[in-house]
Amino acid sequence: MFPIRDSIPRIHTPWGVYIIIGLNLLVFLLELTLPHDALVGFIHLYGVVPARYFHAQGTIWEQYPGGILSLFSYMFLHGGWMHFIVNMWTLWIFADNIEDVMGTVRFLLFYVLCGLCALGLHMAFNQHSMMPVLGASGAIAGVMGAYFMLYPHAKVLTLIPIIIIPLFLDLPAVLFLGLWFIIQLFSGISSVGAAETGGIAWWAHAGGFIAGILLLPLFRQSKRCYFCYNSRGKRIGVARWSDH
């Protein structure tokens, strides 16, 4: 499933979203300028290699121990054009409405904390992994978790490719995001104990989503406006958290 757009208009200018996309773009453009060997070193240094934190002694990582910087920098690295575009597009669709209820500064902090929580759960299940973790998807999953709670009756125009036939459906956000989370969770469970082959950090996605749900009440602002909807998904006005 790939989201095309959602039905919730923004109220405030999403400066935080612009900042995050801009930083991701700058880092990705830097990656594109690096020769292959330099890029591999760059990703291993500024991405997160779990084994570097848990089992550095006596390994190649003993000379390059895990530092604090990579815990944050990994969120701005991407493994290719598709990885970058999918992440930034998903962020663009869901994040502006979350920034609406938080404000820019709180949203940026929320985003980073979701990314850290996502990484923490991934590392808990992959302590021996030599595969670097990189990408914004864990933090974006936190945004999706908050959206799941705030706008369950919103509509998400979704592309579902069936072999070579593109199918477009307007799905309720609660269904789209709920299915997405279930896929991440069960994929993570099925990957436990499996041989490491790289690919998708399922536990990071699940961890970020849960973090977004749990952190939302701490970061929303009572005076910020957001669009509210009834149980049928019809917009009934603009509200503030203090109105509830």
From TrEMBL:
GO terms for molecular function: peptidase activity. It is a multi-pass membrane protein. One of its GO terms (biological process) is proteolysis. The chain crosses the membrane at residues 12-30, 71-95, 107-125, 131-150, 157-182, 202-219. Belongs to the peptidase S54 family. Its main location: membrane. InterPro entries: Peptidase_S54_rhomboid_dom, Rhomboid-like_sf, Rhomboid_protease_S54. It comes from the Bacteria. It is found in: Membrane. Gene3D superfamilies: Rhomboid-like (1.20.1540.10). It comes from Oceanidesulfovibrio marinus. This is Rhomboid family intramembrane serine protease. Keywords: Hydrolase, Membrane, Protease, Transmembrane, Transmembrane helix. Residues 68-219 form the Peptidase S54 rhomboid domain.
